[in-house]
Amino acid sequence: MSSLNIGVVQAASFTAPGDGAKTKETNLQTTFRYIDQLVFMNPTVDMIVFPELFINGYDGDIWPEMAETIPSGPTIQALCHKAKEVQKWIVPGTLVERGNDGNLYNTALLISPEGEIKLKYRKVFIPFPLEIATPGNEFPVFEIPGVGKVGFVICADAHYPESIRNLVMKGAELIIKPTYQGEWIGGLRNHTPIAITRAIENQCYVISVNQAGPCGMGNTVAVDPEGRIIEELNIHESFTFVYVDFEEVRRVRETGSCGMFGFLKMLKEFKDNGSNVDECYVNDISQAPVYNGLTFPHPKVPTDIIRYDRKKPTKV
């Protein structure tokens, strides 16, 4: 079998202001109910995926008390037990991880039907100052035996083409993107076209799973290797099933999108023929001319944000 039937859950987190324990336990039980419901409705489902920070919510003030180590944290252990109970792959969105260094990370997990963590990814591109997590620094890929290779990006990561390209160069054929994006962050033009573009340019599946309203803007979307939307939800709490055929990825990469545009093969051919298609990465990108005149650092807290004024930039 070189395919996955993926249950995609678009739901909104519950938050008990100032009460991390209640927030986490309530959302964990909701996660379990959805898993049971999807397995009951469609026993052929192979994997169930949730949005970014579904269990912890986006109230950064209570993240420290909710943070857990991986794999020993009680919530992580409960999720592993549930995956083993239902014999399904589980992607519980992302969770607030307490690293061995004491820092907080926004972390995605792939849990196997045997209840084992097979892939851990820490969000790299943190949208400061909205999020207090520490950036990760790796782009791991996991090959599901006999099926295909899977990689994660998380929300803002997808705005950087290098994130998914790193995964694809390691063989990733399916990109799962847990997301927590509100309407105010550019709306659909800042969400759906990015998923389509990343799928086309990398000739892979991209599944962006967003929180429902009112927390997120919904519009969860699944895109195939030629950029076609194969499933899409609206803003409301809902779920759907996405059939991912890894042979379709291999076909498109071999014969080209629309039967002629072999983007990845062309990229290698241009490089083999001496073209500097990766010139932008060969040298230290921090010294690239584009950065001349730009001020640093990027704002990390709200007081660092500069209000744009053509005459004189001023701090907010």
Annotation keywords:
15 strands; alpha/beta; globular; 26% helix; 316 residues; 6-stranded mixed β-sheet
Describe the protein in words.
The chain has 316 residues and is α/β, with parallel strands linked by helices. 26% of the residues lie in helices and 23% in strands. It is built from eight helices and 15 strands. The strands form four sheets. The protein has a six-stranded mixed beta sheet with strand order 7-8-9-10-11-12, covered by helices on one side. A four-stranded mixed beta sheet has the order 3-2-1-13. A hairpin with a 5-residue loop joins β5 and β6 (117-122). α1 runs parallel beside α3. The model has no long low-confidence stretch (mean pLDDT 94).
In DSSP terms (H or I, runs of 4 or more residues), the helix count works out at 8
Give the uncertain stretches in residue-range form: none
What would the principal axes of the Cα set say about the shape? globular
| Strand count | 15
Rg from Cα: 20 Å
The arrangement of helices and strands along the chain is: EHEHHEEEEEEHEHEEEEHHHEE
Strand order of the largest sheet: 7-8-9-10-11-12
Distance between the termini: 55 Å
Q: In percent, how much strand structure appears in the residues?
A: 15-25%
Give the overall pLDDT as a whole number.
94
Q: How much helicity do the residues have?
A: 25-40%
Sheet with the most strands? 6 strands, mixed
Counting helices, strands and paired strands, the structural category is alpha/beta
